From TrEMBL:
Gene coding for it: phnC
Start and end residues of each ABC transporter domain: 2-246
SMART domains given in the database record: AAA (SM00382)
One example GO MF annotation: ABC-type phosphonate transporter activity
NCBIfam families from the UniProt entry: ABC_phnC
InterPro entries: AAA+_ATPase (IPR003593), ABC_transporter-like_ATP-bd (IPR003439), ABC_transporter-like_CS (IPR017871), ABC_transpr_PhnC (IPR012693), MetN_ABC_transporter-like (IPR050086), P-loop_NTPase (IPR027417)
Enzyme Commission identifier(s): 3.6.3.28
Entry protein name: Phosphonate ABC transporter ATP-binding protein
Enzyme class of the recorded protein, top EC level: hydrolase
One GO cellular component, as annotated: membrane
Transmembrane segments: none
UniProt cross-references to Pfam families, sorted A to Z: ABC_tran
Keywords, ordered alphabetically: ATP-binding, Cell membrane, Hydrolase, Membrane, Nucleotide-binding, Translocase, Transport
Organism: Paracoccus aestuarii
Amino acid sequence: MLSIRNLTKTYKTGDKALSDVSFDLPKGQVVGLIGPSGAGKSTLIRCLNRLVEPTSGRVMLNDMDVTGLNARDLRRARRRIGMIFQEYALVERLTVMENVLSGRLGYVPFWRSFTRRFPGADIQRAYRLLDRVGLSAHVDKRADALSGGQRQRVGIARALEQEPELLLIDEPTASLDPRTSRQIMRLITEICREDALPAIINIHDVLLARQFADRIIGLQAGRVVFDGPPSQLTDDVLTRIYGAEDWAAMQKCAADDAEDEAQARADADRLLEAL
Ligand SMILES: Nc1ncnc2c1ncn2[C@@H]1O[C@H](COP(=O)(O)OP(=O)(O)OP(=O)(O)O)[C@@H](O)[C@H]1O
């Protein structure tokens, strides 16, 4: 279980990005973290593995006090926290398999990682994970030869190769089309449930968050202003989180996306019929 207590972050510039954020996250629960730009979503995700140093408050991951660790212990602790990024953060000239194995770099001694010699068990796990994310046929492809959705699947497999106890996911679908976004969200949430992995997903797409997350946490100006199941995320609540104008604009955007998608599907059907 992840436990966050009174987490506060004030940047050196004086920007107060988080104010007194507290919540618990049980095993296997997927939280969709939503809120307008500048609400503190990225800061919260980054405070949890101390890529950003919290100003005060406490983060406990199972038995580990993340906020109390010294630099050396923190490095070891970060193995237990997997991250999946918007831009995938793959090494372009390495293969899919090598990218997934890089998830083990925190575990193997430097000289072994330098020669890229990984234990057999790591390689077996990587094959299993690549199968699980649907990339068995692409193991030896270079990362730069993959589509956006495939790249994110590699990012997911790499995070799981760490055998994490928590997944932090930053805008996983921001660079993907709506259909691929849904596939990626479905994959992430299925894996979390099967493996009882807790996850926090910073996601700008409220409809996706509502469709796939078990629980929604809404931030506004660094504070938690909503914490509940997706079913309670009513238009009133969303208007409170985003403001009336922004929420109306987001709805319009989602409607346009759905229309574009339907049009693309109809075009593809017509093309198939004509063949
Ligand atoms: N490195 C930094 N130095 C100073 N202020 C920062 C820094 N990073 C973020 N902030 C400020 O902290 C606040 C929260 O930013 P953060 O990026 O966490 O929000 P966000 O909800 O993730 O926004 P977005 O959806 O636009 O990515 C903002 O006011 C931002 O300007």
